[in-house]
Each structure stands twice: as C-alpha cells, then as structure tokens.
Amino acid sequence: MKAVICTKYGPPEVLQIQDVPKPIAKDNQILVKIVATAVNSGDVRVRALDVKGFMKTVMRFVLGFSKPRKPILGTVFSGIVEQVGKNVSNFKIGDEVYGITGFNFGTYAAYLAVSDKSVVVKKPSNATFEEAAAICFGGQTAYYFLEKAKVSKKANLKILVYGATGAVGTAAIQIAKYHNAEVTAVCSEHGKELVKELGADKIILYNKEDYTKTAEKFDIVFDAVGKITKKQCGHLLNHGGIFKSVESFEMASEEIEQLNFLRELFEKGRYKATIDRTYSIDEVVAAHRYVDTGRKKGNVVLKISE
Ligand SMILES: NC(=O)c1ccc[n+]([C@@H]2O[C@H](COP(=O)([O-])OP(=O)(O)OC[C@H]3O[C@@H](n4cnc5c(N)ncnc54)[C@H](OP(=O)(O)O)[C@@H]3O)[C@@H](O)[C@H]2O)c1
C-alpha cells in the first residue's frame, strides 16, 4: 500500500512516498481504508523534531533517535471499515469512521489497522471525509483544555481565545460558543472574517491592538497557539479565572468521548470544519511546507483516496 515515510528528522523533503505491506486486522482490530487525514502542527513538529532544550533528548527517547521509530506519520483519519477481526462486534464492514491514533501515528497511509477499543467512532453522518479528518486534532485539543478550564460547568462565561485562527483556536471558539460563552478572539487581520463566521463576539487584532490593554476581564484565557504566558495576561482574569495554554507540559488526552461530542455538534450544525487547503498524498511535502509557515487558518487536509 502507499504510505508516507519519514526517513529522518528534518525539512519536509525527508518525507517519501513508499510502497509498504498492507496491514491485516487482528482479532480485536478493524482495518480502515483511509480516505483523508490532516497535516497538523503536531506532525510537522515531530517530522522536524522541533522541540526546545532537553525536550529534544526526551523526544528522541520517545519517538526514535535519528528518525521516528514509527515512520508513517499522521495522527488523525477518516475512512471506511474494510475488514473486522473475529472478536469485533461494535463495527461492521462499510462503516464510515473517524479517529485519532496519537503517538501510534500511521495515518499518512492507504490503510490502518486499529483496535476496536481505540479512539475510533462513527464519523458525523453529514460530514465529508475531509471534514471529519479536519475536526479531530483541533477539536480534541480544544475540548481537553476547555474542559480542564471547566467550560461546561458554569454558565455565561467570558472567554478570551488567543491565537483563534489555528486548528485549536477555531475549534475553541466553536466549543466555547456551544457552551454559551461570550468569546473574544485574538487573531491577525487575516483571520478577522473567519473568527466572526465561527461566532466570536469580540475580536482583537494582535497586529493592531495590544490585547493585554483591554479593559475586559475573563473567566478563562485560553492560549490556543502557545505564544503568551500567564504573567503577560494574568491581570485579565476574573477572581478564580483560569489560564490554559497549549504550550505547557500538559498533553491533551485523546478520548472517544471527545470525538462523540464533536460528531454530535457537527450533526446539530453547531460545529464547522475549517479547511484552509487540501492536498493529495502525493503533495505531502508541499502540505508540510505550508503547515511549517505557522500561518494556516484552521486545518490542512491530506487526501489519501477517493
Ligand atoms: N499540549 C498539547 O496537548 C497540544 C495539542 C495540540 C496542539 N498543541 C500545540 O498547539 C499549538 C497550536 O496548534 P495548531 O495546530 O492550532 O496551530 P496552527 O493551526 O499551526 O496555528 C496557526 C495559526 O496561528 C496564528 N498565529 C500565528 N502566530 C500568532 C501569534 N503570535 N498570535 C496569535 N495568532 C498567531 C496564525 O494566524 P496569523 O499568522 O494570521 O496570526 C495561524 O492561523 C502548536 O504549537 C501545537 O504544537 C499542543
């Protein structure tokens, strides 16, 4: 089968399309014919081993010393169940699914075998495969951090989303709005229309205004792009307010309930997939170059098959 192999850590050109053996579903697994995946900020970070200081050594232990031990990158997928193991009862051949593999990677490929108990569920019935693949990474991450900040536990929260136009930021706006929060989005001029469409109530353009000077106070400040610190914005928090950042030692967990939640919102028309660009698997190097810019709006989809 066709797969993208990360031959070593480095620039996008280290990625090569190769022919590798097609997996077979074990007794407790399903075999998914992947239709779409996404190139996420986490993927380019792994490919380039783009972490600072001693974390580089830690990541070499975790991922592999000179190249990823699991050479097929990609952590999200949507596709069609092609084979089910003999102990699997919760999926059948032909089911349209979406899922997250996390540190097991392996989604830049034509097929993927995963346990039926892993983070894989039916995709939203009204989503295209591209949309389903696009909503996993940002949606799961935003859900995790906003839940940690107790977004679903209190009514009428005021939330500031810093870096509102990335995969995580676009998801955070929508999840916060679903919980009836008042959302202030901080983004550049290029993202203004997008955040408005997604439901932001107020917008601060970081290239025109200093968001730290706003007179407003917030119950949650969520840095969805990892560019600010609590020291810089702590004064914007109400008493008991919570600051969360994606750039911390806290890793967002991957859970089935997150994907079920996103499916429910999507099917209710309360959540949109923000797709900036779609590339074919053969254009994976170009897709990584684009995500490397750090300027994508929402998500970049990698189409694996028709
Ligand atoms: N801890 C975890 O578990 C976890 C999980 C997932 C992701 N992450 C981290 O979260 C970060 C964000 O991920 P992502 O996939 O959402 O990123 P992304 O989609 O690549 O973010 C790009 C967006 O950020 C905006 N941006 C760039 N610089 C900015 C700045 N200085 N201020 C405000 N906005 C800025 C860009 O728009 P403009 O250029 O127009 O501003 C662009 O729309 C990554 O660093 C990723 O590694 C952490």
What does this structure look like?
The chain is built from eight helices and 14 strands. The two termini are 15 Å apart. The protein folds into two domains: 2-136 and 256-303, Quinone Oxidoreductase, Chain A, domain 1 (Alpha-Beta Complex); 138-245, Rossmann fold (3-Layer(aba) Sandwich). It has 306 residues and is of the alpha/beta class. Helix 3 (129-148) crosses helix 4. It has helices at residues 41-48, 55-63, 129-148, 167-178, 192-198, 230-233, 256-267, 284-292; strands at residues 2-6, 15-19, 29-39, 76-84, 96-100, 111-115, 120-122, 158-162, 182-187, 202-205, 218-223, 237-245, 275-280, 299-303. The protein is globular. NADP nicotinamide-adenine-dinucleotide phosphate binds at residues 40-42, 45, 138, 141, 163, 165-169, 187-188, 190-191, 206, 224-227, 246-247, 250-252, 294-297.
List the SSEs and their pairings.
Elements: E1 2-6, E2 15-19, E3 29-39, H1 41-48, H2 55-63, E4 76-84, E5 96-100, E6 111-115, E7 120-122, H3 129-148, E8 158-162, H4 167-178, E9 182-187, H5 192-198, E10 202-205, E11 218-223, H6 230-233, E12 237-245, H7 256-267, E13 275-280, H8 284-292, E14 299-303
Helix pairs in contact: 3-4
Question: Helical element count?
Answer: 8
Number of strands: 14
Indicate the CATH class of the largest domain. Answer: Alpha Beta
What is the rounded distance between the termini? 15 Å
Order of helices and strands: EEEHHEEEEHEHEHEEHEHEHE
Uncertain runs are none
Tell me, rounded to a whole number, the average pLDDT: 97
**What helical percentage do the residues reach?**
25-40%
- How large is the share of residues in beta strands? 25-35%
Dominant shape:
globular
